[in-house]
Each structure stands twice: as C-alpha cells, then as structure tokens.
Write a structure and sequence with these properties.
Chain lengths: 926, 926
C-alpha cells in the first residue's frame, strides 16, 4: 500500500469514455459531496489528508442519474472505468480481485449527498467464492473466519441484490443452532459454516431462479446495480419526502477494499463521536468490539465496550484514533461521527461525517466551538435546528433515571423517533380502550401494529403512541406530530399481538401486556419497560440556549411576538423573549365561569336594552382583563408597553350557547316524561333560539367583523374596555399603545364602518376622561378576498395581521375542524390506491403546519405587496400557527413581514428560525 | 315671443365668470346630456328643432358638482349668469319676473343625465307673491286660478325648499273642506283660497322659523339650492345604488317659464308615449286633463281622458301633437315619453325622453323599428334589457283579466315594482301564519309594513310579498329578488295595520283583511283585490323575442350552455337555445326514491366488498341516466351530441343519510320508552355512524374530488356508467363526446390521481367493448387555490369550468346556506347604524347574484390567464349561477371565456346579454 501508484490506467479509460464516472478516493475531496456523496467525499478527504483509509473508488451520483435516464443501463464507459479503478486498488492493496492468492474483498456501499442512514443498500465481503475463500483461509490462517465471511456474504448479497427472503437463511441458521444446541452464531464451527455455505447457495438459487454468482465481476456488477436501484426503494423515497431531500440527487457507489476487524483480538471495529451526541461534552463517545465485523456491533448480540476501554486494550491504536478524531473535527469544524476498523493492530478509518446529535448536544457543541475558535457565532446559529430548540423545551426523561433503566435492562427496543417528547403510561392496545382510560385520567400509551384514521380518537387522549410498523411519514407519525404527541414508530424489534393484547420483544422473552407501564422517548426512539420520571425543562437554566438565542437575535430582522390571551401567557411569552403580543383573543375571556351566564344573557336578549344591560355587566371584566395583559407587557427597561394586538370578538355567538343536540335531547326527554309544561315551554324556546342561531358552516358564518356590524354594541363595549384599561394605566404613568384588530374582513367597507364605530367610542371615552389615548387600528388578512384587495384595505388600516389558519382553510376550501379526521392526514401520508405499489401523496406537507407557499403564500405575498404599495409603512405580521414553524418563518422573512407571532412555547424556535432565515438570505437582502 | 332675442347679455356675464354654468335652451342640444341632464338636453333639442317649448335655461351638472365641492356654495358667477339668462327669458316671453304687470312665473326642476323619476325636487309657479298674484289675476281675469296657484306654490315650496311638514298644510285644507262641507280642492272658492294663502304662509313661517320669502329672487335662489341638495337625498342615493348610476354625475337645474293648463277648457295638460309601453303597438298612448295642471294628473282626483279623445276635444292641438310625437320619435330613433301643456289652445312641449316600457313592448318596439328602418339589428339587440327577457318568460297576469279587474275598480294601489312576476293568494300579515298556511299549501301573499330578517321564514313559503314602506333596495325587495319571488314594495297608497291584521287603501274606504284574496304584479307594482289568473308564457309563440335572440346569436362570441341534471331539463335548455350542458350534477340521481336505499348501503358499508356490491347495483341506474341526457342532447342537424359536462359526485356523503338530530331524537325516545334492546342497539350504531360522518363545516369537508380519492370505487362506477352509456349510443351510430369534470380541486396532485383512476377505467371499458370512446377530462375552478395555481392544473385538464358559487363562498368566506339569513342581506341592503341618518351599505351588490369583479373576478381572470398560458386551447366556461346574470356575463365575455352555463330558463337572457357584451366591447375586441 505504500508503493507509488499512478492513475494512468484509469485516465486512459476515462479519455475513451464520454464522461468521467469513477473517482479514486485520492481524486476526490470534501467539496465534492454533490458528485461523490457524503461518504465518498469524506473518505476522499481523509485519504488526501494522509489518514489510514482502505483504498477504493467512488462511482458518481451523475452515473446513478444517467443510469435512471437510460432506463437502468450503466452509462457508457462506467463499467470500464470501474474495472480500471479496481486494478489500481489491487495495486494499492497488493491483492487480487477474484484471485485465489491473497484475494481482494471489497465493500459496496451507497452514499448520497445527504446522509440517509439505513435507507439504501450495502454489500460487504464481495469478491468471495469457492476459490477465493481458500485464499482467505491461507491469508488469515483462520478457516472459521473465512467461511463465516463467505456465509455472511451470501446472506447479504441474496437479500440485497437478489431480493431473496432473509428469513429463509435465518431459519436454517436457527435450525442448525437448535440441533447443535448452541446459542450464538459465533459458536458455529468452521465445518458447519462450510455446510451452511452450500445450503445458503441452494436457497439463493431456489429463490432467485439462477445459480448464485461465483464470478466476482458479476457479483460486483450486480451489487452496483442494486445500490443504484435502492435510491428509489420505498423507504428511501419516504425518507427523502419526510426530510425534504430532493429526489433527483441520486446516490454514489463506494467500492472499498475490505479490512477485517474479526481477525483476532488485535483486531476490532467501532464507531465513535468526537463529542457526546447527547450532552455535547468534548470527549470521545462511542463503542467498539474486538474481533468483530461492523454488523456485529449493529446486531447487538455481543455487548460492545465503551471507547475509553480501548485505551487499555490497544493503547497505541487508541492514541492514533484520538489524534485522528481531533484532526478530523478541526478539519471539518464540526463534531464528527467516525467508523473505524482495526486489522491486526492497524487502524483504518472507514467513514467520517457530521455527527447527528440531540438538541442539548447541538446547542452545547455550537456554543463550545465558538469558544474554541472553530466557528463563528453566525455559524453557531446556523448549526442548531429550530425544531431542536422545541425539543429542549419539551418534558423529557430524567437522564439519570433513563441511564438507570437502561443499565437495569429495561430498554426494550428502539424504533423511529417519529415525534419528540417523553411519555409514560399503561400500554393499551386499542383506541376505544385508550379513550375510556384517557377520559378517566389514566395515562396511557397507545400501542398498535400501525395506526389508521380509526385510531385517532384514542390518540387524542393518549400520552404517547408506539407502533411496530410504518415510517416517518406513517399515519401514526404524522398525526402524533400534528397533536404534539410523543411517538415511536416502525419499531421493528417488537411484535404486537392485538388479539392477545400484548407485544413481544423479538429475540427475547420479554412481553408487555395491556396495563403494564411503559415509557417511550420520541426524541430517541427508545422504549422502556416501567415508568421513567420526566422533567420539565427550566428555560432560565438553559444558559447555552439563551446565549445562542441572544446571538440569533442579533442576526434576525423579523421580530418575534406571541399569541397570548391571559396575563400568565403573556408573562411566559416575555420570558421566552417575545417582543409583543400579536394576538390576544378576547372571546376566551367570555368563556370563564362567572361570565358565561352574562354572555348568554347578552346573546339571548330580546331587546337592545337587555343586550346593553348584559354588556354593561361585562365591561368591568373585560377592562380588568385588558389591564392585566397591558401591565404584564410593560417593558421595565423603558417603562413603556410592548405592542399588544387585541382582536375584537371573532367566533359565532352560538359557541357560547349550549349545543343544539344537548337541548334537543332535554326537550325530547321532557316531552316523553310529561314534565312541567312551563319548563318544557322554556326549553323549547331555548331550542328554537339555538336552532335559529346555528349555522351549516359556522366557519363561514356570522362571526368576525360581521358580528360587530350586526351587533355594534359588542364592539363598542370591547373598544371601551380596551381604551379605559389603557387610560387607567396612563394615569399611573405607564404608556400603553393598544392595537385593535378586526377579524374576518372581506371588503373595505366593513373596515371603514368598524373604524367609524371605534373612533366614535374613542372620542367618547376621551371626552369622559379628559385625555385621549393613542391606539392603532388594523385588520386581519384571513380571507382570500382581503388578500386580493389589500390595496383597498391598507388605506383604512394601520397594520395587517395575517391569519394564515383561516386563510389556509378558505384558500384550500378545507375545514380544519374536520379534515384531519376525514381526509387531510391521508392526503399528507399518501393514499393507498388499488394497483399501485407506492402510496400517492396528494399534499407534500400538512398545510396547517407548514404554510403552503405556492397557494396561500402567493396570496400573502400579493397582500404584502399591494398593502405596502398603498401604504408604505404599513406594519405587517402574522398570527396564524405558521408563525411558529421554521419553514414558514423563512418564507415570511423572504416576503418582508415585520414580525411573526406564535404560541409562547414556540417563541425560542421562532427567534432561531428568523435568524437562520436572515443569514441564509443575507446575500439576496444586500 | 317671436321677436329676435340675443344672448349678448348672457355672453358678457359668462366672460366675466371663470366658467359657463348656464345654458339657454337655445344653446343646448341632445348630445349635451352629461352637462345639461336628460331633461335639459331634451328641451334644448326640441327648442332648436323649432318645437313649441316654453323658454328657459339650464344650470349645468358641473355647477351642481362644483357646488358640492365648495361646501354647498354656488360656483362663482353662476347666479349672475342665471339672472342674465332670466332676463332673456323675460324678453322671450315678454313677461317680467317679480313684476306686478304680466308676471313671469317659472318652474324649477331637477334633471340628471339618467332619468330618476320622482327622486329629486321640483318647484312650480315660482315667482308668485302678494304683488305678482295681482298681476296674475289681471292677466287671467281669474282670481280663483291665481290664488290657487299661489296656495300650491307655498305648499310645494315649503315642503321642498323649507323642509316643512306637508301634513300641516293638508290638515288645514281638510279642516276647511270639512267646515265648508265640500269634497274636492277644486270647489274651494277664491275668497277661501285667499285666506288659505295667509294661513299657509303662517305655517311656513312657524315651521321654518323665518317669514315666507316674498322676494322672487330669494325664492329662485333657494329653489335652485334645494334642487342641488336633492341630488344627495336618501331616496336618490338608494335609487342610484340600485340602478348603478354613479354618484358623481350631479343634477342640472332647469328653470323654465310656466305655461298653464288650468286656464279654461281650451287649456290642459297630459303625458303620452309614442307607442304603447305595455304592448309596443305603434299608436299614441297616454292621457290628459283639460283645465288642469300637471300635478292634478298625478294626484288622481280627476280621471284623465285617453289621448285619443283630444282629437275630438281639441282637434287642431291633437294633430299638432301627433306630428310632433312622430317627429321626435324619428329624431331620437326611439319610443318617446312626452309631457305637454296646452295653454289657451296653444301646444307647449315640456319634456321628451326615451319611454320606459315593459318587456313585451321593449321587444316589439325594437323589432318594429328595424322593420321601419329606424334602427339596425345591432341597435335592436342593444335596446332590450336582458332582465326583460326574463320577465317575458315569467308567469304573468292574463292581460284581459287584468284589464277587467282594473275596469272593475279592483286596482287598489301601485307600489314599487321591486321583484318581477305575478302572484295571488290570501293576504297574511305575519310571517308565522304565512309559514303555517304556506306549509298547508294555501297560496299566501305576505303583507307587512316592511320586512326584516324575522320575516324571511314567511317569505320562503309565500307566493309574493307586499310592503307599505321601503324602496328598491329594502329588505323585502332584496330578499324577494334573491328568492325569485314577486314583490311590490314601498306602496305608499296603503296603510298596514298589523294589530288589526288588515291594510287600508289611503283616500278610499277600501280594506283588505287577513284571508282576503289579493293579486300583485311585481313587474308593474300594481295591487289588485281578488284573484287574477296568471298565464305561463309559451316561448314558441314569442315570435318577436325569438327573432331578436336569433339576431343576438349572430353578434355574440360567448356560447350559452345550460345546467341540467335530467333529460327534461336538457330538453328545455335546447328549446331555449342552449348549445351544450355545462353542468350535469350526478348526485341528484342518487336521491331518487328507489336508489336512496342502495346509496345508503354503499355509504354504510363496512367492507370494500359491501360497498362494491352497492355500487354494482347503482351502475345500471347511472348508465341509463347518462344515456338519457346524451340522447336528449343529440343535435339532429348533425347527428352528433352537443357537449355534455358531467360532474362526478360532489356533496358530502352524509347528505344522503338521515340527519343526526333525527336519529338522536329516535334514540332518546327508544331509551326513554325502554324499547326492544336490539332495535335500540341498531339505532345507536346508526347514530354513531352519522355522528362520525357529520362535519362542522360540510362546505369545506369531505366532498368533491376528495370523496373520489378516499373512495375511488365511486369514481370508478360513475366513470364506467358514463363511458358505457356513450358506447351504447355509439353502437347506434350516435357520436357522443362526454366531458368528465372533477369538483373541488385545490392541488394538481388531486387532478393527476383522479385522471389516473379514470384512464384505467376507460382502458378497461374500451377493452371490454373492443372500441375506445373519446372523452375530455376537466376540472372545476371553485377554490381560490385552484385559481391561483391554474398554471399547474391546466397541463392535466382539457377544460376548466368555473364554479363561481363555491369560489364566491371561499373567496369571501361566506356560507351561502346561512348568510342571507344572518347578515348578507343586511350587508347588501345597508345597516342602520346608531347616529347615522343613512344606511351603511357594505356590499354594493349581492355577491351570489352578480359576480364580484374585484375579488372573485380577479381570481377568475388570473386563472384564465394562467390556464391559457400553460395550455393555449384550454376550454374555459362557467357553471355557477352567475352564468345567467347579465352583468356577470359581460365580465365573462371581457375576460375571454368560451361559454357560460346557466339554468335553462336563463338561457335566453344569457344569449341576449352575451350579444350586448360583444357589441359594447366590439371596439376593444378589434
């Protein structure tokens, strides 16, 4: 491997081809991720940095894409280039591919631009056949090793390349072990392995209809094809959809000479992070197995040792590895996830890539690396995913307790981390029972093979969801994320038995029955037996996070406000860094126990006088509500209030009345029981009133500004309460500037008339008080017509606040109250259509979670442009739930909003997302 | 009057003014309507044509607008010009304004560009005071005449200019007549009139706080101001709103020397049309009174004579009038409405304008005038209002019977013709009773002082509505037009007594009590006692109309299709001239009695198999439905089918199930009565199913294409039925090209997936039949998102059909099912706001009747442009109810649609409206 090897042979072949499809590791570098994929670029960079990397070459992503374009034919010249590269690898390793003497074995692995762990195919030990296996025996002096490698190769190649059923091989193995009365694969003697190789080849032939390929070039050819094909397997497509990775990138194929960690106790294999992926501490974090191949670590049949022990077992190797890790981290300026193999005391690096980390680690690593001078603050802000900030603020398992549980063997399995958060409760195996128990306030975790719309009522009351099947975009995953419910999905290590109401942990005798306590960690995908206590995070103690967010604040242009209806919400919002209240809903105040009877009196009033009397009773309540909010929002630094946007009454009045069905049943019962005629008469009158007020489509009904136009006295009362509250504080020397917001406007005339009403009240209040109060008047943009005619609204408004929830409902014609249950989740998840293998996805994202840029966004952009054209300094914000979604926040930054307003808990996410949006669009903004 | 009069004096004054504000009649002409108003331009044209017009002058509309701009100050120089013009009129008439000798009296009348009859103010006999009245006595030798004129002037001036209460004067008159025991005003002797003049002046002073003006110039000044002001009185604003007359036009003021028809039996006054305004016959049609002033004709205290009698009474005058009428008609090339006065045997023309006419007359006049060579066919097509065509096709009173009723004195009063159509039934005075009787199938006419939203349930079952108060945009008028219900509103001649349940005809002793039969003609505003039979029009016999429409067809570019669900509707559509079916709703077919149980089975199916079995049962029904429609729509001329657009199932499935409330009551009753547990269990299951399926907002729910994606088997069955029906006809040699339309699309992926489903079915059906069938695939554009992303839909669709009903619902966020009842009618009608004199109109038109060009229209236009850009020959039509509205049709023409589709009865309207749109946009199109 030390001799000087030239690329000449490869160069020649490339010149005869239309294109260069193959790169030796020594020809690539870290910047070539697009062409060589993440893994290929990584090993190339390591190779050129002089690190010990087993030689090999990468077939480019372009080759993969050309392969698809040419209807699954290798591009012209690619195979020749690969063969030529292989020759160079033979020289580099001084081994021969398919040669009985000193045979070269290779691994064939996928490697896309963005890491898609476990989604695509890998084949190890390729190049082995009945002849070369003899060479391997000779080379290693270890017959068992050689035949075990052969047996593994057949198994893996059959599954991956020949699409054989892996269970057939497992069954034979199991049968053998049972007959021989041995427990682990490692105990199988060489002679038996020889026999298994024969049997495995027969199974492969039986299942594929062709003899198992003994020609090593045929093996290679087929393995490369299989890796190309795996780019478009269902798992991979789903993964890309979920992670928003474009489908046109293609995968590279890495062909690398094998090194063996299973050649004795001076050999081994392991993985390690350069820093802890859970805490972010700067220390090697990983594990290894001596005398083992990589798949043994994954299989979990032997317990690996912590990386620190390597210092004792192979001190020289450990030191070298530590230096390498340090060097790679400095080189990449990021925490690395490393794979290595030690072959007879010699360290080989197989992979380096940015390490995945949890929320806490992400923040700490970013902060530490700034302190270490590795990255600057901007880079630190870009390094943390906004959604990780959300995870940091979710209840989570106490780390100590979780460790104890793991050490006590209570970790049952690991599935897909489908929706973050920690939950514990009694395992329940059907939605109806979950609903019953949930309503009885018993914490439950719903366990299902997979979920369907029939399970949603159970999910609504569960603390968490666990499924055995389904990926990141499965029904369970999508619904749980929508509900903010922890979920572990696709847990292949368990088998759910619905009839018996239990699940078994595969490969163990562990069983969890209905009613047993379990704990699930939606952020890590771990499932535990028993209860693990959760801890609520304390934002004040998240020193690193607060530092990161303060950096973020210095980069963002968007302000972050919060939606809050009560002083306690407003307080929380301020604590999380909100700079204003973008939406204070006044109607929640109507629902409180002591007020509801007055509100009902107001609604059922038969005369203006009666209504006015009820409103007069409500006025002091509302005034003190508003005063409370205003007081909370006073910025102590300047003694002035942060902006507070108060929306006048919005929901249809019948929401405050008992439901029609409820009263109908009461009337029917009274009729049947021949009750007091007076009572019946009153109930019937109530029924008629409720009937008159209910609507076919309340979402599109008498609500929003329509209410205030039909019943102006409600608007008058609310406006008076707002202004009087502000005046009272003004008398205490506190400057408040309320912003009054009008919902559901579709026509400028509505706005003009409400403005006229309000101005009359303001004049009256000012007259009574002897001093005026400044206020701003604005409108929600939440109907398509308002967006389309924003130029007519702007002259009448001081600000626009986009209500993207309702705007999404009307632009799509989808009722949010119903749609998840009836069709929307299935649209997002994909429809199973007869005759199609893959699910048909109708909506790329859930439009109530991520703003639909093309449709709803088009309207928003139009309104921003028209509004600003009509009034240059119009204040523009958004108060729909999209205000807390990072992807949506980026869009709102791009189109020039002034602020986003979201729920208090999402304020930190929004601060970070707004900063990232500003940083990533810095160039355009300049 | 024959001497040569010059304008020199006026010219001089004009030159000293910044602008010419005043035109002598001799200075104007018919083309100056904008500046001089209709009346001013008319008298000017007549003056210059040498017709006998009493001299006068016109103050321009510009002066009126400048008056408003200058905060109600006369424009600089206007008054001086008016005085100078008055001097010339004095010369022309040889009389003196305010002179005791031979005094000049003038009339001061409004006159806007568009006729607004009765909406603005008029003052007659101006120039009279205690001195000039003496001159009038001397001139006429008739003291009674002179003092009667004086008395009338004080009354009219007080009411119009001084805003005095007219009842005060009436009361005095009535008291006098009672005391003197006389019945009519005409019997009051001169001495008494003298006394009345004194009393009237006292009343005027008392009410206005100032002495009644004796200075004739002050009278004139104030009268001109009053006419200017009347442009913005409430009645006038409402009238303009309703008739879509712009508010910025302003009114002119006509000051004209008085001539007197009440100077003996060689004097008189009258009005006449040059052709019959009800039948269109070419003959003078009108009436006159000898020895009378114009107001006497209006007051109806003396019965006027038919114009023909004038031939006997004043043959010379009649001949001159007849020639004048003929001349004016030829001059204006339209039927004229003339006012004239005869003073001592001399004819004076006071006004000429285009005569208002009913539908039948409008058509006949247009057709006849083409035959007479007066106008060309294009002009004829432009002359008839499309809505008149609709009136022609409504049931109407038998003309003979109506005449009989009138002659028998059964004509009770005349109100505003608020909503066309004829109706008879029992008078009912409250909505609840109307509802009861209506439900009992008793025809009722709801009579109310005025209506409010509380009356709507009664209007829904009534045959017609009659109100005493309220104008053309009153609640009653707007609701009735919305419901297609005949309505006579604002009938000032009746007084409704709600408590007594009756109405009295003012000035008579006639009383109509609850339960009495009445008949109302919504097209003329007439109200009759008793029943008048109605006749249904026979389109085939409407020869003139058919001719006019055939001319229209040759000018229009838009095709006219119809919405029809059944063969009988399709037949009617063809008879009315439809060229295709733009919307065939398939779900109505599901509702039929024998099918509903199968449909319910399909919906309640628990397995795919059960659902499929039910669908298999429905297939033959649907196939024969479609075959029926296709057969009806075969154009016998070419043996090929007109296009038929079939929309796949649209409404939410729960519409086919019993209502939740219904089942809830049943379950409650069963529970209370301790019924058969099995029956209770089944009902409870049904209740749960219905509960699971019902939606908060069904309009935005699981309907349209969403249904076909969640339950593909429904789409599959419907598509199969359509294609098999077409194939069966193809075998009979009839070529059919069905167009399959997908409702409620919001995303291109929906369309792609449904298209894939359909193509699979088409392939299957073609395979079975051994021959393929051509079909087109298209989408409705009825959600804002579909319009915004039309460029993504066009590549997947052969045609777009705009569903402007749903598009209006979602663009405005208004539920059509609820909104009229809750707020929409009040938005259109105007809100009564505390502290405001005028109602505040929120929507200028009803958005479900006239397409909202600014908002909804903006989306439609966007979709047309984006759609055509993506696919040049995309077929574009509209199938919402706006397809039958003339104003909307003009818009659809302008933006380049291919066709409109409307209800069969509206097809003739649409043909005419489309032609008018094409003609009026001819220039732009070139």
């Amino acid at each position: 491997m030390t001799q000087q090897i030239t690329h000449e042979g490869l160069d020649e072949v490339v010149q005869q081809s239309p294109h260069k499809w193959v790169y030796l590791f020594s020809e690539g570098n870290a910047k070539m991720r697009d062409l060589l994929g993440g893994k290929g670029a990584g090993v190339a960079e390591m190779t050129n940095a002089g690190l010990p990397v087993p030689p090999g070459f990468t077939i480019t992503t372009e080759a993969c894409n050309t392969y698809y374009e040419a209807d699954k034919q290798f591009p012209q010249g690619m195979w020749q280039q690969a063969l030529e590269a292989l020759k160079i690898v033979e020289q580099q390793t001084d081994k021969g591919f398919g040669k009985k003497e000193n045979p070269l074995l290779v691994s064939v692995r996928s490697g896309a631009k963005f890491s898609m762990p476990g989604m695509m195919d890998t084949v190890l030990n390729l190049g082995i056949n009945d002849e070369t296996v003899q060479g391997l025996v000779a080379l290693t002096g270890n017959e068992r090793f050689a035949y075990d490698a052969y047996r593994r190769f057949i198994q893996m190649f059959s599954k991956t390349v020949l699409n054989a059923d892996p269970h057939a091989f497992e069954q034979v193995l199991e049968r053998y072990k049972k007959e021989a009365n041995i427990k682990s694969d490692a105990e199988i003697p060489a002679a038996a392995l020889k026999q298994l190789v024969v049997e495995f080849k027969q199974i492969a032939e039986h299942q594929s209809g062709h003899p198992f390929p003994t020609d090593v070039y045929e093996q290679l050819h087929k393995a490369i094809e299989a890796v190309f094909s795996s780019w478009n397997n269902k798992r991979a497509i789903d993964y890309r959809n979920f992670n928003k990775i474009p489908h046109h990138l293609g995968t590279a194929v890495n062909v690398q000479s094998m090194v063996f960690g299973n050649m004795g106790n001076d050999s081994g294999t392991g993985v390690a992070f350069t820093r802890s992926p859970t805490t972010g501490e700067k220390q090697l974090y990983g594990e290894y197995l001596l005398n083992a191949q990589g798949e043994d670590v994954v299989a979990g049949t032997r317990t690996p040792s912590k990386i620190e022990r390597l210092q004792e077992e192979l001190p020289h190797v450990y030191q070298q590895f530590q230096q390498t890790a340090e060097r790679l981290e400095r080189h990449y300026r990021d925490m690395q996830d490393l794979e290595f193999t030690v072959e007879k005391g010699r360290l080989y690096m197989l992979q380096t890539r940015s390490g995945k980390r949890n929320a806490q680690a992400a923040v700490k690593v970013a902060i530490d690396m700034v302190a270490e001078g590795l990255i600057d603050k901007q880079e630190a802000v870009k390094r943390v995913e906004p959604v990780q900030v959300y995870h940091l603020l979710l209840p989570r398992f106490d780390e100590e307790e979780k460790k104890k549980a793991t050490d006590a063997g209570r970790l049952l399995a690991k599935g897909l981390n489908a929706s973050p958060g920690a939950a514990y409760g009694k395992a329940v195996f059907d939605a109806d029972r979950a609903e019953e128990m949930g309503k009885a306030k018993i914490p439950v975790v719903l366990v299902r093979p997979e979920t369907s719309p029939d399970d949603v009522h159970g999910m609504l009351v569960a603390k968490g969801v666990l499924t055995a099947r389904g990926g990141a975009t499965s029904h369970a995953a999508v619904v749980a994320r929508g509900l903010g419910l922890p979920c572990v999905a696709g847990t292949e290590g368990i088998r759910v038995d619905e009839a018996e109401r239990l699940f078994r942990v595969i490969g163990t005798d562990k069983v969890i029955r209905e009613g047993d306590e379990i704990s699930i960690d939606g952020a890590s995908g771990e499932i535990f037996a028993g209860t693990i206590p959760t801890v609520a995070p304390d934002f004040d103690k998240e020193v690193d996070l607060k530092k990161l967010l303060s950096w973020a604040d210095s980069y963002r242009r968007l302000q972050v406000w919060a939606n809050a209806d009560y002083p306690r919400d407003a307080k929380r919002a301020i604590d999380f860094g909100a700079e204003g209240i973008g939406l204070c809903r006044t109607e929640h105040m109507f629902m409180e126990q002591e007020r509801l009877p007055i509100v009902r009196k107001m609604i059922l009033a038969k005369t203006k006088q009666e209504r006015q009397a009820a409103l007069d009773q409500l006025l002091p309540f509302q005034r003190s509500d508003f005063k409370g909010i205003f007081e909370t929002m006073i910025n102590p630094k300047v003694g002035e209030g942060y902006p507070v946007v108060i929306r006048l009454i919005d929901p249809p009045l019948h929401e405050f009345l008992p439901s029609y069905e409820e009263v109908l049943v009461e009337v029917t019962k009274l009729e049947m029981s021949g009750a007091d005629p007076q009572q019946l008469k009153e109930k019937r009158e109530l029924l008629e009133t409720v009937d008159n007020m209910r609507e076919q489509n309340p979402m599109l009904g008498l609500r929003g500004c329509r209410l205030g136009l039909i019943f102006p006295e409600i608007n008058v009362m609310q406006t008076r309460a707002i202004l009087e509250a502000a005046l009272e504080l003004a008398k205490e020397g506190k400057k408040i500037q309320p912003k009054i917001m009008i919902p559901l406007v579709s026509h400028a005339n509505e706005l003009k008339e409400v403005r006229r009403q309000l101005e009359a009240v303001a004049k009256e209040v000012a007259g009574e008080a002897g001093s005026a109060i400044e206020y701003k008047f604005g409108t929600m943009i939440e109907l398509p017509r308002a967006a389309l005619l924003a130029d007519q609204l702007a002259p009448v408004a001081d600000f626009f606040s986009f209500g993207t929830n309702d705007l999404t409902q009307t632009t799509f014609g989808i009722s949010r109250d119903d749609a998840d249950r009836t069709f929307l989740l299935r649209y997002v998840e994909g429809l199973e259509e007869p005759g199609l293998k893959e699910k048909v996805r109708i909506f790329p994202t859930h439009p109530f979670q991520v703003v639909d840029r093309e449709g709803v966004g088009q309207l928003v952009r139009m309104a921003v442009e028209k509004g600003r054209k009509a009034k240059e300094h119009l204040e523009l914000g958004i108060c729909g739930e999209h205000g807390g979604d990072p992807d949506s926040i980026e869009f709102f930054h791009m189109i020039g909003m002034d602020y986003v307003s979201c729920s208090p808990f999402r304020v930190p996410i929004a601060r970070l997302a707004a900063a990232q949006a500003a940083l990533s669009h810095q160039e355009q903004d300049k």
